[in-house]
From TrEMBL:
Annotated protein name in UniProt: Probable 2-(5''-triphosphoribosyl)-3'-dephosphocoenzyme-A synthase
Chain's role: Involved in the formation of 2-(5''-phosphoribosyl)-3'-dephosphocoenzyme-A, the prosthetic group of the acyl-carrier protein of the malonate decarboxylase.
Record bears the keyword Transferase: yes
EC number, as in UniProt: 2.4.2.52
Organism: Massilia pinisoli
Keyword Lipoprotein tagged: no
Family: Belongs to the CitG/MdcB family.
Name of a matching Pfam family: CitG
PANTHER family assigned: 2-(5''-TRIPHOSPHORIBOSYL)-3'-DEPHOSPHOCOENZYME-A SYNTHASE, TRIPHOSPHORIBOSYL-DEPHOSPHO-COA SYNTHASE
Top-level taxonomy: Bacteria, Pseudomonadati, Pseudomonadota, Betaproteobacteria, Burkholderiales
Gene3D superfamilies on file: Triphosphoribosyl-dephospho-CoA protein
Length: 297
């Protein structure tokens, strides 16, 4: 006698979809970590303006988050008719994911902003299908819902920078429906590919398009308004010179990179939003998940 299978075909499909979205999220984080060159950030050349990070650590942190992203995506498809409950559920998974990240990184903040952004996006994608505008809009709606399980204050540097400088930070970006992802990174990725930039150049240009106008609390917390202005101005100059694929753009990129290095600052928020854009790009294009990421757990 065989035991009855407690799972319906719908359950199995939802689990498959959740794992697939989680693999996309991990792959997007790994692609972001390894993208080279990035100004002030960890890349294959080194730790940029950071003293405690490296690309293998960023990749290990990304891989450790697979299960959390899958749980969020599963919640997104299962709790489709009660957004308040869904918000509470993914808040709890997100806080657990932050603890998982800290355990994987030995206590270093590798991906807090990314858990927030990509977590909301995989949750939304599980219920909307591959339309990136709808995914970002639904993620924004979820981010605007209060979470009674969240502490009144995180006490993090980002929150303090938001109060001090009057900016929205990671929360504001999500609540607005990820305008820098949908309106800056993804269009630049498409434009750069269309004009024949190599894929890694297209991705660097997408990062610069985010940096050019983002109120990045990672920069503000470390170097104040001066650092933010240097990053925004430098990114605009590279893009105005034709982007990283051109000789003038590369020269401007060198100037930007040297300036951020001197100031010991890094655009960590823009890096998270690039990863968010790479996630949506993968979903939109129906990219096959590479076998290496499928086998990570
Ligand atoms: C909502 C939370 C993200 C908490 O936000 P809060 O502002 O309170 O905390 P921070 O962690 O300080 O800031 C958020 C991180 O988001 C990134 N970021 C910054 N600006 C923006 C922006 N404009 N738009 C989007 N994202 C932004 C940025 O992350 C990157 O920087 C980190 C590295 O910074 P670094 O200075 O090196 O490290 P620190 O440890 O801070 O300092 P040092 O000691 O090393 O000097 C790196 O992690 C990048 O990811 C900001 O840091 C969220 O945590 C929250 O409330 N979660 C609760 C769970 C939940 O509700 N989840 C919902 C489902 S997902
Ligand atoms: N590549 C990177 N370097 C530093 N901080 C980051 N946060 C997210 N990605 C990052």
């Amino acid at each position: 006698m065989t035991a009855a299978n407690p799972f319906t075909t719908r359950d199995v499909d939802a689990i498959d979809q959740a794992l697939h979205l989680a693999d996309h999220a991990v792959a997007a984080l790994v692609d972001e970590a390894m993208l080279t060159p990035k100004p002030g950030l960890v890349d294959l050349r080194g730790a940029g303006a950071h003293h405690d990070l490296s690309w293998p650590l960023m990749c290990a942190s990304a891989c450790a988050l697979r299960s959390a992203f899958a749980q969020m995506a599963l919640a997104g498809s299962r709790i489709a008719d009660d957004d308040d409950l869904l918000r509470r559920r993914i808040g709890a998974i997100g806080r657990d994911a932050e603890a998982t990240m800290m355990a994987a990184s030995g206590g270093i903040n590798t991906h807090r902003g990314a858990i927030w952004a990509l977590g909301l996006l995989v949750t939304a994608a599980a219920a909307t299908g591959p339309d990136v505008v709808r995914i970002a809009a639904r993620a924004g709606r979820l981010a605007r819902i209060g979470d009674p399980g969240a502490p009144a204050s995180t006490g993090h540097k980002g929150e303090r920078a938001c109060i001090e400088h009057g900016v929205g930070g990671a929360r504001g970006q999500a609540r607005a429906g990820f305008p820098h992802v949908v309106g800056h990174a993804l269009p630049m990725l498409k434009l750069a590919r269309a004009r024949g930039d190599a894929e890694h150049h297209a991705r660097v240009n997408a990062l610069l398009a985010v940096m050019a106008t983002l109120d990045d609390t990672c920069l503000l917390a470390r170097g104040g308004k001066k650092a933010l202005a240097a990053a925004q101005d430098g990114a605009r100059r590279v893009l105005a010179a034709g982007g990283i694929a051109t000789p003038n753009g590369r020269r401007a990129f060198g100037v930007l990179e040297a300036r951020l290095k001197r100031m010991h600052v890094s655009p960590g928020g823009a890096a998270d939003l690039l990863a968010a854009a790479l996630l949506l790009d993968r979903i939109e294009r129906g990219v096959a998940v590479p076998a290496t990421t499928m086998e990570l757990d």
